[in-house]
Write a structure and sequence with these properties.
Helices cover about 30% and strands about 25% of the residues. Helix 1 packs parallel to helix 13 and helix 2 runs antiparallel to helix 5. It binds flavin-adenine dinucleotide.
Length: about 400
Amino acid sequence: MEYDAIIIGAGACGMMCAAQAGLLGKRTLVLERNSKPGAKILISGGGRCNYTNLYTGIENFVSENAHFLNSAFAQWTVDDTISFFEMYGQIKGKEKTLGQLFPESNKAKDVVAMFTRLMYETGQDLWLNSLVTDVSRLEDGYELTVERNNKQERLRAPKVVFASGGLPVAKLGASDFALKQAHKFGLAVVATAPALVPLSITGKNADWYASLSGNSVFARVWNERISFEENILFTHWGMSGPAILQISSYWRAGETMSVDLLPQFDLEVLIKKEREDGGKRTVGQLLNDYFTRKMVDALGEFLPIDIKIASLSKADAKLLCDTIHRFQVKPAGDKGYDKAEVMRGGVSTAELNPRTLESLKYPGLYFGGEAVDITGWLGGYNFQWAWAGGYMIAQDI
Ligand SMILES: Cc1cc2nc3c(=O)[nH]c(=O)nc-3n(C[C@H](O)[C@H](O)[C@H](O)COP(=O)(O)OP(=O)(O)OC[C@H]3O[C@@H](n4cnc5c(N)ncnc54)[C@H](O)[C@@H]3O)c2cc1C
């Protein structure tokens, strides 16, 4: 037991935990199944890493108990992330949109380099190509079974940190390891599902969506739980884009959601104005002011786009406004874990001490990052949670 703790996973939470433990003079061993650390950080934000969000609050998270985060965000704030990145990585942030902070260099690899350097400089060990296959309890700590160099090894430590992430993107090393082990230890796990994920459309409407593939529209998308105003993107299999990814975390199979395709205008008012001006233009010409030609043509499949506005009946005007402002979408499903940015659900917060992320039932066992039932919106929130968790655990191990 030469380490204060063994950390499973060299991702966002695990590397932050090791680096912070190192700064406190502690010694950790990080075990990573991949041949390099931080695989998800490297591809995050399109390779630019949206590493935090200036407006992070508990309302930006999906969880059975988002209030659990109050303690985390009191201990590790967005300002702490910004200062940490500046101090240890010389990484200055620049805001792209909606509070989303990226490194000025636009290079996610600078973030991984900061962590590996800090872990090295503070004497933390990182073993790559090391797959943890089991964790079991001892009287004075835990034993890990590790597959490494085609051999099975057993390692012991007084404390173990599950920072092995969630299910999205298997080819980046994602696994259900933390969830399976939580089940084994008898800890409650909230049902998981892909989140921040594109949604597919099948059936009779599929061709209509496919015909619009590549078209993007600024829209408001909502259901009975939440509403988001950002772009939606039509694809040959359904819908994507930030507003769809956001609402996917709140969508349940079989549900219909509503889309306002023109949230910044009131079509009723626009039609009234056209009528006052003589109503000589067609509905299609009016819509062309706001949508691409392709979109107008596609809408023409169920809207009277060739009719002059002056001759538009009350019923048709209502159909037009309802369709544009309350477009109904019933996705067939989501595109699954390999297209998802995160996982919804995970180890229940009810099992963890909100101050330390230590298991309430098993002292010395910690869960952080995506493995826990805390899922952030799109926009840097998931990393903010992963850094906070890593920091909190490091204080306690
Ligand atoms: C395409 C994409 C883009 C994203 N972009 C952003 C973004 O810009 N901003 C943002 O905030 N979030 C983003 N996310 C989400 C973010 O990457 C995750 O929320 C975050 O990485 C979770 O951190 P973690 O440490 O819990 O897990 P991870 O970073 O996934 O790390 C877990 C590590 O554990 C390792 N591991 C798993 N099982 C074992 C095992 N049994 N033994 C040993 N090692 C194991 C894995 O290989 C992995 O390296 C993105 C996700 C994806 C998929």
